[in-house]
Amino acid sequence: MAAPTQRHARSGRTLAILGLIIASLAVWTFWPGESHAPKLGLDLRGGTAVILTPTGTQTGGAITDDQLKQAVEIIRQRVDGFGVAESEVTTQGSGQNASIIVSIPGVTNEAILESLATTAKLDFRPVLAQGFGSSMPTPTPTPSASSSGTSSSPSPSPSPSTSANIVPPASPSATGNGAAITGGLRPNDTTTPASPSATGSPTPTASASVTPSPTSTASPSATAPTSPVSSVNGLPPIQSAANDGALQAAYITLDCSKTGATKGGPTDPKKFLVTCSKDGAYKYFLEPAAVEGTEISSAAAGLSQSGGGWEVNLTFSADGSTQFATVTGDLSKKSPPANQFGIVLDGLVESAPSVSQAIIGGSAVITGSFTADEAKALANVLKYGSLPVSLEVSSVESISPTLGQDQLTAGLLAGALGLLLVVVYLVIYYRALGVVAVASLLVAAAITFELFVILGRQLGFTLSLAGVAGAIVAIGITADSFVVYFERIRDEIREGRNLRAAGDAGWIRARKTILAADFVSFLAAVILYFLSVGSVRGFAFTLGLTTLVDVAVAFAFTRPLVSLLMRNPRFSSGKAWTGLSPDRLGAKSPLGTATSTRTTLAASRAAKES
Amino acid sequence: MSRVSSLAHRLYSGEVSFDFVGKRRRFYAVSAVFLLLALIGLFGRGLNLGIEFKGGAEFTVVSSTATVEQARASAQSAGVSAPIVTSVGSDKIRIQTPSLTLQQSDAIKTQLASDLGVTQSDIGVQLVGPSWGSEITKRALQGLIVFLIAVVLFLTVYFEWRLAMAALVALVHDLLITIGIYALTGFEVTPATVIGVLTILGFSLYDTVVVFDKVKENTRGITSSNRATYSEAANLALNQTVVRSINTSVVALLPVAAILLIGVGLLGAGTLKDLALALFIGTAAGTYSSIFIATPVACQLQERRPDMKALATRVAARRSGSDAKGARSGNARATSPGATDESGEDSTSSPLASDLGAPTVVSTGARSQTQRSRPRSQRKKR
After folding, report:
1. Which of A444, B197, B251, B296 makes a 20 to 30 Å CA pair with A477?
2. Does the domain spanning B56-128 belong to CATH 3.40.50.150?
3. At what angle do helices A465-494 and A535-553 cross, to 10 degrees?
């Protein structure tokens, strides 16, 4: 035990450091321009939480984390496509036990919910027409002046730096192989919207090779306007019921920069499709699926052996190989953009490589100026998009904003009442020490609030109703630490120690108990957090956080404060108001020199009373 | 107030002592009755599971004018055959149905909104797939088992395995009683209830750890003397901590009671009520078990140790030899086996004697010295 003066100085220093920490947290919390309140969960402000669980893959295999990531990516795309601000998609757990949790604030429309659990599909669809995603980005005058209705538009305007091509693996694009590997499009690249799409006049005759033979009546109007958005001539002929005027109109009016245009969703592989690229830079008019994603047997990103940068290798199943050979054979005869096929995942075009030769044998390489990440992303799309994870809506909970507000009010009220009850009890029972406990509780409350705000801002921690309940329950657990300490001090006084010694000796014994008991609480919180879902997690997090705060406050606030008080002559007089008067506690032989006579008298009085 | 304090003091010194450990059969019997009732409830009536566990849909309509009958008629006209409609709180109506698809729930929501004259945003919807319940049950059980194992490991390291086992018995006791009360009363079991029950584990252990800490302190080096048996020392520890146990429990229960009060009064039902109810029952059971179950069980286990048996024999021998002394100290203290030793005039100031409030007057410095030297002397004796 340190000498009293040392002890005194150390207590003061500890309190000062704690004060400094709280103050700097407060500055952080109330930093201008940031939110000064904890981020509220959906059950406190209204909104919908959906829990999706994977039920398996279409092939029946185990679910890998990569597949799960892909599924989350698709769901995020769908939700974001609806333009709901602040919606969140998160996963908990992994593999078969994983859950995907989608939180959508505010009032929800059922369309979003219905779109969530549908399984995403990958397929390859020949491109009929292609245009810029929005009417905005075409400042460059485009060269395709020709494009008379029938024949192919001659202006390939290759932009090799951004093009993606698909070639057989044996003949890397560098060798040329006689086939004109001209610039196809990489729709993901928005930086070069310059020319290629401007060539967007498809050739109705050439497209005849693909399954539904076109009746080739309405060849595009020969006006040949250059901007693809206004280019009505960028439309394929009306061929069947599946590709009717409505689709054409849809293609003309489609603006991929608009909310909802890029949300994706399930598509019918047997029908024509008008859609956007994933990033909304381009729009496409696509034929029915020529090859479905399930026919891909593998896909991987790798460095080109000829030094051409990153590329994606893919191989098809036996059936897929035949289908792919047919479609590439057809496509290679066409001119841009109809020599491309769109790789369509969940209704959005991931990439649209151009084809310059028939690819026979079931392996292909997609080349282009990919970065490593782009190549890997595309390979993942091909790999996992072909084995989509089926999801099941396990739980939908939608809370109306009114009810959310009610719950928030109730939670705050319960917290205030709980705090009040504990404060009253502590002050009545422990008098001055009770005031110390109340101050400690307030310090703990301040730190907890600051942490809620900061964690909400930095880590996206949201305070749910269960979290609020956890915080209220924590009032009791925190106060319990003080009770344990104070009772220990009283025990020491009963054993005849003076106040100062009791405060020190009591702490040495109490802190072990406090640490052990808090450790158990913390253990419960950690285990709950990692093994649970949804609201239980919020509760566990709050409970764990407040347990840590409890330990910090007990060690850095309550203990030093009591230590200082015990050294205060007025307090250590041990009068009744301190809550520690030895006679009231019935101490036998108090050793506090200054108080000995008084307490002896008091003791005899007490003896008389009893 | 001062009466409470002086009672606390007399409990502490052993002047007043309740024989928790000696009368354990009585407390075991009380618990056995409760446990039996709990099991009857659990296997007879079963738990009233919320839709989160059995699957289904629940609509919450916030409206001060709509009646239960209106809501029922509306739900039926939307195609629900047997909706369970209840009024919740002052201004809410809850409609529960079997599992629905999103389209069905949308239709019902629209119907309810138009029939009850509220906007769609005033209707909360909860849909739970049939398999989700078993999933969260599985996870809750996983959490429970992992927690129990972790706690037993921790307590084994911190105390020893016998105390860990006793704590485990008390925990299971609290869990069963809480679940049993839920089964008997038919309170709805929701995920919030599960949170509450799992939190009880922490609470119940908090009390048990506090008591065991004192037991550990009182019984440290107990075999080196022949003043008291393990059970007596433990019983003294219980008496010394009983006020503290009650205080920590009251303080822990006050906020829970506040949640319960507000949850029921203002919201009628939902997360707050479910959570607080489970906590309330469990914490009450936890306080009981930490005093009446955990320590007596711990004593029974400890008394089987050979060294504790030997100690008990030595204590008995010493007692029969000093009967006269024991009789002299007389009245109130005679009821407390732990306190009978207090007559010791010897100056060896054993830890127990000083804890008993023996009138050994030592200065603080000297005292801490004896404390420090204690382990060494123990070691020598072994």
Report:
1. B296
2. no
3. 30
Q: How many CA atoms lie within 13 A of B159 on its CB side?
A: 29
Residue A216: how many CB atoms within 10 A of its CB?
A: 16
- A393 and B127 within 8 Å at the Cβ level: the answer is yes
Instruction: Compute the distance between CA of residue B178 and CA of residue B164 in angstroms, rounded to an integer.
Output: 21
State the Rg of chain B over Cα. 28
**pLDDT digit string, tens, across residues B283-304:** 888 888 888 898 899 999 988 8
- Which comes out higher in pLDDT, residue A484 or B134? A484
Q: CB distance B206–A610 less than 8 Å?
A: no
Residues 82-121 of B with CB under 8 A from A: 92, 102-103, 105-106, 120-121
pLDDT value of position B283: 84
> What are the C-alpha distances in Å from A371 to residues A161, A304, A312, A377?
12, 12, 11, 10
Residue of A nearest to B2 (CA): A584
Q: State which amino acid sits at residue B321.
A: G
**CATH code, B2-49+133-302:** 1.20.1640.10
Using DSSP's 3-state secondary structure scheme, residue A408 falls into helix
Instruction: Express as a percent the part of chain A with pLDDT over 90.
Output: 6
Distance from the Cα of A254 to chain B's closest Cα (Å) equals 28
Ordered structural domains, chain A, with CATH? 11-41+400-609 (1.20.1640.10), 42-116 (3.30.70.3220), 122-139+157-205+228-387 (3.30.1360.200)
- Residue scoring higher pLDDT (A329 or A246): A329
ipTM of the complex, rounded to two decimals = 0.74
Concatenating the DSSP letter of every residue in B269-321 gives SSHHHHHHHHHHHHHHHHHHHIIIIIHHHHHHHHTTSHHHHHHHHHHHHHHHH
pTM: 0.68
Is residue B165 within 8 angstroms of chain A, CB to CB? no
> Which of A402, A429, A495 is closest, CB to CB, to B62?
A402
Q: Across the interface, which of B105, B132, B276 has its CB nearest the CB of A394? A: B132
pLDDT on residue A214: 34
B143 vs A contacts (CB less than 8 Å): 527-528, 531-532
Q: Please compute Rg for chain A using Cα positions.
A: 36
Smallest CA–CA distance, residue A440 to chain B, in Å, is 15
CB contact under 8 A, A533 and B251: no
pLDDT of residue A421: 92
Place of tokens 């959005």: A348
Question: Which residue in B121, B195, B205 is closest to A400 by CB distance?
Answer: B121
